[in-house]
Predict the 3D structure of the following.
Amino acid sequence: MSFAHLHVHTEYSLLDGACRISEIASAAKRKGFSSLAITDHGVMYGVIDFYRACQKEGVHPVIGCEVYVAPQSRFEKSPYERYYHMILLCENNTGYQNLIKLVSLGFTEGFYNKPRIDDGLLEQYHEGLICLSACLAGEIPQRLLQNDYDGALEKAVYYRDLFGRENFFIELQDHGIEEEQRILPGLARIAAEAGVGMAATNDSHYIEKEDSRTHGILLCIQTGSTVSDENKMEFQTDEFYLKTEDEMRALFGAYPEAIENTQKIADRCQVTFTFGERKLPRFDVPNGENHLDYFRRSCYEGLHRHYGQHPDQALTDRLEYEIGTIAEMGFVDYYLIVNDFVQYAKRHGICLLHRHHGDRPDKIQPAV
């Protein structure tokens, strides 16, 4: 196979994606695909389940997200503010860390109807990411639809320079929608003038063509309408499914490189997850001191504070035993973090409570 789907919405594109993760990986295998991407709208809830499902089926998982980009600033929250779509794919684990940072900030800083990021964040967290210009809702397609070719080209050049020539692609789509077909030549021209590649995608919201009705019901639930409403929100065609490579080639015969590039992109995306290993937060030790040395010194300060400068040897031996056990288990940073917030609470007069499993709420005691 020399085509990979790089624009796919699972059930985690809530009330918009009808591709169940448990089914889409096996469907990709059945249709002969060696790779498959996940690009849910603004979220990454389904990434781990998707990764595991693909591994189970022997399909290479490509981790990504279709993010929402504010035209100006993510902090601008006007009722007239729009947002654009953008596909971000993780080339490596650095890209994955940057993508989860972007998605998180979209919620904590940019949320307004949608979790939005902006170009400022992309400038900070673009390393390790491959960018596609997205569907009709992307900024470049939108500018073309407004007959603003120069503006579309300018934005393409901006993203080319930001992500790198090899990491930015003009996305081509054709679901039988007139607007898509109208801007295809313009998109190809932009790719040529900007000196970047093209990537053909199908905006897959369901697995098989006949699943379009199920997807339509999801949209009705999302918008509070019924299937009999004449003005209900619905996709213009039933072409938003996981098409075969032959179907994609038939659509984009004039742009064969856009087909070939999809598999090349998928092959570059090599995010790996390790399961079954404990991963604890890191504590930033003052002055760059060794973590264990800092922990031991802090413990001895407490020992001397409670038992004087010359405690019994049994106490010192016991402390060394405890420190050794904690270090062996890899819990040094954990203890330092807990101590940090305990000390903060004490300094600010905050009461700390502890409870044991099974304690009644009225039996919770202050921590000492």
